[in-house]
Amino acid sequence: MSLLSDPRWGEALGHLPDYLGNHVRVSVIALALGLLVSLPLALIARNRPLLRGTLLGFASVVQTVPGLALLALFYPLLLALAALSLTWLGVSFSAFGFLPAVLALALYSMLPVLRNTITGLQGVDPAILEAAQGVGMTPRQSLFMVELPLALPVMMAGIRTAAVWVIGTATLSTPIGQTSLGNYIFAGLQTQNWVFVLFGCFAAAVLALVVDQLLALVETGIRNRSRVRTALGGIGVLALLAATLVPSMARPQSTYIVGAKTFTEQYVLAALMAQRLRAADLSASSREGLGSNVIFDALASNDIDVYVDYSGTLWANQFHRTDIKPRKELLADLKATLAQQKITLLGELGFENAYALVMPRKRAETLGIRSIADLASRAGTMSIAGDYEFFSRPEWAGLQKAYGLSFRAQRQMQPDFMYAAVASGEVDVIAGYTSDGLIAKYDLLLLDDTKHAIPPYDAIVLVSPKRGEDLALRAALSPLLGRIDIAAMREANLRASGNDASSSPDAVARWLWEKIGSK
Amino acid sequence: MTAGPPLIAFAHVGKSFDGGRVRAVDDVTLEVAEGEFLAIVGGSGSGKTTLLRLANRLIEADSGRVRVEGEDVKAVDPILLRRRIGYVFQSGGLFPHMSVADNIGITPKLLGTPANEISSRVDELLDLVRLDRGQHRDRFPHELSGGQRQRVGVARALAAKPRIVLMDEPFGALDPLTRDALGDDFRALHGKLGLTTVMITHDMTEAVLLADRVAVMRAGKLLAEGTPGDLAKSDDPYVGELLGTPRRQAERLAELLPKDGAA
Questions:
Q1: C-alpha distances in angstroms, A127 versus A133, B1, B90?
Q2: Coil, strand or helix: which one is A151?
Q3: In B, which residues are within 8 Å of A132 by CB distance?
Q4: Which residues of B183-215 are buried (b: 16+ CB within 10 A; e: fewer)?
Q5: Which of B93, B95, B140 lies at the smallest CB-CB distance from A225?
Q6: For residue A461, is it left (φ>0), alpha (ψ between -120 and 50) or beta?
Q7: E strands in A191-302
Q8: What is the least distance, in Å, from the CA of B229 to any CA of chain A?
Q9: Which residues of A touch B58 (CB under 8 A)?
Q10: Is this structure's pTM higher than 0.80?
């Protein structure tokens, strides 16, 4: 099948009104907020060297913080603020998605606006300032009638830079729950859907270029005092806003929101749950690519309604428990703990997605390694790779302690790449996931955890406080409980990691439903 | 020449810069009578521009007293003071983002004059400084020649019908022909409108040709003042040196360009 006739282009296009509309909305509001703060600050600071230095320094530091980290930092900050506001003022707001994205992006837009406004105002010829004084202008009149109009082209160039930065960085707001063109990129990276990745990059680049050119038109219009150019640019910007915002506003809001973390299995399960809800005539949509720490809080604050988590992850990461209990006890304990937060543990899906130490079967046989205990004596000469969070998770500390593991080197990798890395011998061992389809594909061996250092990781369906008593939701999702075994999930994951039309999460979810529904 | 009470009066005025290290104006006492055209001549750093700016409080005096139309300028709102004194800047000082009409009409606009009155006043002023209404009204400063720009500068200074016009080397950057024409035109306006004019220049020839009275400054001090005839009698060597140039030029020109052709 040729690249262009791939049906995933059509699927990507179908998401465009939603993703683009949200992207433009969050960018425009962030930019407006950024301007609203930066312009007065620049006016106040321009003749105060100390304040000016401090402000520009601060804005530069903000700029050096990677966009993703800045966005991620705003989430817990707002969560804390929301809690404070609830206790003090009795008003709560959602710290999820839109608000943290707007604030972080607004902060990001400040540097070029501040710098160019200050530079533009300082660049006004002193002889002109003297003339303004000489004809009898007050300092305020001089600012508004002479200085600002003369600095406007330079200021406009700054606004243009800020707009392009904000549009680019907004693609990173997907993990904190703000739908954007980044949804294509994050979903595409996780499910190896390069059509989505390309589409997302292309759409974001086109949007940035169009906005840049329209603002450039306004800028040259102002510079050359051409009303026509300025008006054309302004009309273009407004038309773009209308064209992107109206379709997304006209879309009906779906009632149920299914959340998904940032890996393939989560996309498939979210698609499966959304399909089941729709099959029961409930309107459902999914919020995908949510960060591991974001998603639980989003559920607890009713920003999403349902998602799949793993018992061990909640146990160790969310509730900071270091003791390890047998499966059933852990689940019961977890259910009680969750109930305190009014979150319902609907049930287990039937498989575990645990961390496991994995190496190629042949190599393990040659070396006579079958368990982690066997590995321990050779670890000193070996390297290990894990995903971005594994080495900072309590399970890793537990493993090291229980087996006295010490590797020669440890590396962090994108999960989808580490299986190929261990199969090719680039690293010796990886911390893989038991439900991953690539384990069978590359003929890898899961090493036995004889000391039970890794807690159980049953896939469990969690329901938000708001939907706890929702019988329609329970009825739609309960056919999934206990039905998905490890073999089915591995095969689904393997299918989803393919790079063709039948590997989209939706298609795989349909396949999975047929498989378990026909049992 | 001088008649009536002085319209501008400097009394023992001093002004220092850089925390007292540079004495730009040093104990200057000088009066300008109503209707008078005074030229202040000096080299760069003589303090002539500083003295001019003390009159409309673009610069504040450290010591002494400056009076305009009988009032101590310290007791007057500087913004209102500047709106009633015309000021012509060295190279026009026009606002580059405003049309000729907007530049000329700026002070009336600041004073709250209705737009239609400003508009007819602008036309009147364009006629007065001999610029074509239709051709120049809507142009921007960068589309004008140096001489045209300075004519607009003069029109702007006159827009709010001031009694006093201050000019800071207004014709310095122009070619000799334009300079001559503009000087003559302004001198005619000065008489026609009954203005009181103080003009800064480094060119003694220009001062002698245009002004009723000439004041000479050097290193912040007023060296001499009087009609060109009075100055010619001065025994100050610097004044003599300054007057020497136009005198030599006049003699050389008389030799080189005999009127009757009988050289």
A1: 10, 35, 9
A2: helix
A3: 95
A4: beebbebbeeeebbbbbbbbbbbbbbebbbbbb
A5: B140
A6: beta
A7: 256-259, 284-287
A8: 34
A9: 130, 133-134
A10: no
For B44-77, write each residue's pLDDT tens digit: 889 999 999 999 999 999 999 999 998 999 999 9
Chain B residues with CB-CB distance to A135 below 8 A: 82-83, 87, 106-107, 110, 156
| Mean pLDDT, chain A cut into blocks of 10 residues (519 residues total) | 69 84 91 93 89 88 83 80 78 76 90 91 92 93 93 92 93 85 84 84 94 91 84 90 77 79 89 92 85 84 91 85 82 91 91 90 90 89 88 84 89 84 91 87 89 87 90 90 90 82 84 81
Q: State whether B91 and A127 contact (CB < 8 Å).
A: yes
B161 touches chain A (CB under 8 A): no
Give me the domains of chain A, ranges plus CATH numbers: 7-250 (1.10.3720.10), 256-353+457-517 (3.40.190.10), 355-446 (3.40.190.120)
CB contact under 8 A, A136 and B97: no
Q: Do A135 and B107 touch (CB under 8 A)?
A: yes
Report DSSP state, residue A252: P
A128 with B93: Cβ contact below 8 A: yes
**B chain contacts of residue A137, beta-carbon cutoff 8 Å:** 79, 110
The whole-angstrom separation of Cα A235 and Cα A466 is: 44
The count of other CB atoms within 10 Å of the CB of residue A96 is 26
Chain B residue at shortest CA distance from A149: B97
Any idea of the CA torsion for A300, A301, A306, A309, to the nearest 10 degrees?
-40
At which residue do the structure tokens 């969310």 appear?
A318
The string over A263-300, giving b where at least 16 C-beta atoms fall within 10 Å of a residue's C-beta and e elsewhere, is bbbbbbbbbbbbbbbeeeebebbbbbbbbbbbbbbbbb
Which helix (H) or strand (E) segment holds residue A438: the answer is helix A438-441
**Residue position matching structure tokens 């393997």:** A494
Q: Does B113 touch chain A (CB under 8 A)?
A: no
Cβ-Cβ contacts under 8 Å, B111 against chain A: 136
Instruction: Note whether B110 contacts A141, CB cutoff 8 Å.
Output: yes
